[in-house]
Prior knowledge:
Helices cover 68% and strands 3% of the residues. It is an all-alpha fold.
Amino acid sequence: MVNDKCVCLICDSSVALPKRANVERHFKTTHSKYATDFLFGSEIRKVKVREVKSSVSAQQSFCTKPDLKSKAATLASFAVTEILIKRKKPFEDGEMIKEAMQRAGEILFNDFKNKKEMISAINAISLSRKKKTVVENCDATK
């Protein structure tokens, strides 16, 4: 089920209604040779099912990981901005904080297998001048 629709793991097409009869009809019409090529209970069928399942999970993880990384970078950016606002520091200090985080990351993550990925996550943090407007708006409301 993907977004309340039955999706065929073999051909990625969706079935109109999630009913057993509709799924069986799709399988029998579209994949009629599947039952003869991959006999039920055979080892080759088990291998094929594992391949299909792993390809689906790979597709799903491909779609979610970049989104999680960009969300984490955005949250980190806002956290740094919040610290600068609370301490009433100029926004230019944000770039200094980012540089310090990069240097610290190089040292702290030295023994980690995914060091490059961690450093690239720090590099993805956006500390642009646009956030200076946020600081100015906060000062204007006081």
